[in-house]
Amino acid sequence: EYLTKFNSNAELARHRLISFGIDSARIIATPGDRVKINRTLTSALAFRKWLRTSSIHVKGINIFSMGPHARRTWMTFDKLLDKKYNIGIISVPDLHANTENKVLKTIRETLGILYYRLILLPY
């Protein structure tokens, strides 16, 4: 329902943060290409591209992520940004996951970390 008004999850997230009262001048959406897999990597690549072309001086970055996916998100951004920035990760709980689902998500994220570390992030 929300995505019908916005072109990307990044723009939706920006809108939500503004609705919570955060100054719109302090929030920049950097949407990546629409992909079915490797969305975290695609988001990090889009952000890196924005950093390289932006005139804004960035000292640090805080990233919001959900549950066990936060580790892979932090790892991906840290690797792609060449450890030049202080990167914080804010992991919010997945309120829709039950105990069985949480175990499966944790296993999936562990495999995802291995996949990213061995195959995707060496470049």
Summarize the main sheet: 2 strands, parallel
Going by helix content, strand content and strand pairing, the class is mainly alpha
As a percent range, the share of helical residues equals: 40-55%
Q: Helix segment count?
A: 4
Number of strands: 2
Short description:
With 123 residues, the chain is mostly helical. Helices cover 49% and strands 11% of the residues. The N and C termini lie far apart (37 Å).
Protein architecture, described:
- This protein has 123 residues and is mostly helical.
- The chain has helices at 9-19, 39-53, 69-80, 99-120; strands at residues 60-66, 86-92.
Protein topology:
Blueprint: H1 9-19, H2 39-53, E1 60-66, H3 69-80, E2 86-92, H4 99-120
Parallel strand pairs: 1-2
Helix pairs in contact: 2-3, 3-4
Key traits:
123 residues; mainly alpha; two-stranded parallel sheet
